[in-house]
Amino acid sequence: MCVPGCMEAVRAGLSRRGFFGRAGAAAAGFAATAVTPVPAPAATLAPRSFERMIDLTHTLGPQFPTFFDTPGIEFETRAEYAKDGYNMYVWKLLEHAGTHIDAPIHFAAKGASVDQIAADTLVVPLAVVDVVERADNDPDYLLSRDDLVAWEAKHGRLPRGCCVAMHAGFGRIAVSDPARFIGRDVDGTLHFPGIAPEAAAWLLNDREVAGLAVDTLSLDNGPSTEFGTHKLWLTAGRWGLENVANLDQAPPTGATLVVGVPKVKDATGAPVRLFAFV
Amino acid sequence: MCVPGCMEAVRAGLSRRGFFGRAGAAAAGFAATAVTPVPAPAATLAPRSFERMIDLTHTLGPQFPTFFDTPGIEFETRAEYAKDGYNMYVWKLLEHAGTHIDAPIHFAAKGASVDQIAADTLVVPLAVVDVVERADNDPDYLLSRDDLVAWEAKHGRLPRGCCVAMHAGFGRIAVSDPARFIGRDVDGTLHFPGIAPEAAAWLLNDREVAGLAVDTLSLDNGPSTEFGTHKLWLTAGRWGLENVANLDQAPPTGATLVVGVPKVKDATGAPVRLFAFV
């Protein structure tokens, strides 16, 4: 597989230039900062081969924890094998449930919906930042700019057009310990790690990153009421991934992430299949 | 990227052996035929690189044609930016709408649901069989065993563990001419091409194929009331893809298909993102 940037423009998608062009305009309106355009990552990476695949996706059912304290999905039976000769459901689906994508329009007055995210920004280098130990000591831990600088000191500059994933160790407890995964306290405040807005701003302004990912319920940490990272990142035309699974199996760098998101018109988010190829 | 078979077993998925083992058992019950087990395709294919990506996915909205004459998706607004500071919908989704997967359980009393399809059978070699000219002359055209034999005469034996895709030219008209795409006549009978059950049976018994794909509404052709290909193929534990887009851009052989299907528990089908890497 070639790295993303050397892929041809996809017929039905938006061009990278168009996508990030709008992103910059939107971000300028929100944060009054200049956003570095994201060039094609191919310029710095040669074609490469892959030898194994990691499924970064949780199974989504009615029991999977959600941010909203309601089931993420419910089923209505439309056909049954015994009666109709086949089985079929209709889903009532909260589009931000399970392992899912946040499209720019999720936190912006205007912005790309799921179907408008450029296809070639959905196949990107994956950078995994391990904050497990810090998150074990602080359930509200915010991944910081220092964490990113430390990652670069070990692994080199973040690849152009990559997805930066926070690995807080929460993928392990999403199913086994949903109460801890959500972290709701007696006052109703949630507690789980997220990405600091200042870290997101640094990535937006000083690096060339297509997406953020977290293994928790939200890009912002549990207690956040401002949703600063959501606002900054999505308003800038980038996408986010939440409830990512199995990041403990992914290398810090070198994998390619494929974001398998159904191309649903106008959607602000959608459940996804995430494969990392190593 | 390595070809699928050399990928490590994915933690949360079923093993290929387990998947096709159940498939064989189910098929034996239905068709009283022995089904050839499908070995890992890696045995015959070396690691390879890819240089471009083709998006084989239609955009799914309420207007996209469905088999059932009802909208495939409808939206309920859960949050609005102007009022709530963010946008969010709940989808009412027919799980067999748009470019989607049929899981084995769709046409079987027992069988794998979407979440139970082994992850490593979702990244497979793609074989595209062009029947556009025949479909132009016969809207009910059935891809035949002869078509498959002719494909092999040109391109060699179908790769182990591949997806066989029927390219009937219907991807071009799904959006531009939905009435012709559905082909409903005055009596209510539908007209569009599909795959003949005898061709599916040959693939099941004499080749080692993971999935079937069509650029029409159904694996069976429009007038079918028996759904012979659905029953044979899905009961054998294989998956199917319907409403595939842009097959005119895919080569007859040499591409790798990634089936990005959300991992929804118990689902009989699901909208997917399909990427072909060439």
Give a written overview of the molecule.
The structure is a homodimer of 278-residue chains. Chain A is globular. Chain A is α/β, with parallel strands linked by helices and 278 residues long. The first copy, chain A, has helices at residues 16-31, 81-84, 132-137, 145-155, 173-176, 178-182, 197-206, 228-235; strands at 53-55, 73-79, 88-94, 100-102, 123-130, 142-143, 162-167, 194-195, 209-214, 239-242, 255-260, 269-271, 273-277. Chain A has one domain (4-68, 95-277): Putative cyclase (Glucose Oxidase, domain 1), CATH 3.50.30.50. Chain A starts with 15 loop residues before the first helix and ends with a strand. In chain A, helix 8 (228-235) links the parallel strand 9 (209-214) and strand 10 (239-242). At the A-B interface, strand 1, strand 2, strand 3, strand 11 and strand 12 of A face strand 1, strand 2, strand 3, strand 11 and strand 12 of B. Strand 3 (88-94) of chain A pairs antiparallel with strand 3 (88-94) of chain B, so a sheet runs across the interface. Chains A, B: Pfam families: Cyclase. Chains A, B: This is Cyclase family protein.
